[in-house]
Amino acid sequence: TPNYNQTKYLERTILSVLNQNYPNLEYIIIDGGSTDGSLEIIKKYEKKLSWWISEKDNGQTQAINKGFLRANGEWIGWQNSDDIYYNGVFHELALIANKDPKVGLIIGDIMLIDEEDNIIRDVRYVKPTYNSVLAEGMVLSNQSAFWKTNLHQEIGFLDEKYQYSFDLDWFLRLLKKTTSIHTDSIWGGFRQHGDTKSNTNKKAFIKENEMIVGKYAKSFWQKKFFQFRR
User: Which of 192, 153, 179 is nearest to 74 (CA)?
Assistant: First the structure.
């Protein structure tokens, strides 16, 4: 979990991880030098954390990478400090992963939630592929996605030149190298509020999206074909 001054939501994120009661959990929190009381919340749960740190960084992307570099688990993902997991996610992930050891990415569906955890609506996905993400954008969400940690040895980590659409770039690179499974269970809650980066920096999101898609661009008709097939 990367965090910077999200004391309003941070504890709910932490509890959504710890309350999974998963017996083999490695939970890491990377704080970017918060000054809003976040550290007091983190310290409240530090005995249940594998590792945490608070220091100035270059933003969310670098913070997530710091966590990835410390992680030793077989499966990995990140949950932003204003979002949540729903109960039973980690156990279901383990069951699915054990059924097909060749799969490297497993995703679930999400709920859009408001500042008080009230449900706005559900968001349903299908099995993501490299071509579907390239054609349509983020047809999956980090709030409900996990992948094999050893894939980082082959692919590397998040590209820190991106601060907004780094997840799009990451999942494109990931899906180029591995196959995926989708379960129609609700795994994550994606919080909608006025301070999200997607609300406050829409132009930056669009610019980075265009940069990323341009790296992998297919023709107009190829993209239309993948959209039609889905």
Answer: 153
Question: DSSP letters of 112-166?
Answer: EE-TTS-EEEEE------HHHHHHHS-SS-GGGEEEETTHHHHH-S--TT-SSSH
Angstrom CA distances, 183 to 7, 89, 139, 141, 216, stand at: 31, 11, 13, 13, 27
Q: Which of 42, 80, 44, 37 is nearest to 189 (CA)?
A: 80
> pLDDT over 70 for what percent of the chain?
96
Phi/psi at 182 (5° precision):
-115, 135
Q: Quickly tell me which residue has 């999206």 as its tokens.
A: 209
Q: How many CB atoms lie within 10 A of CB 183?
A: 18
Q: What is the pLDDT of residues 41-76, one digit of tens each?
A: 999 999 999 999 999 999 999 999 999 999 999 999
Report the interhelical angle of 166-177 vs 202-215 (nearest 10°): 30
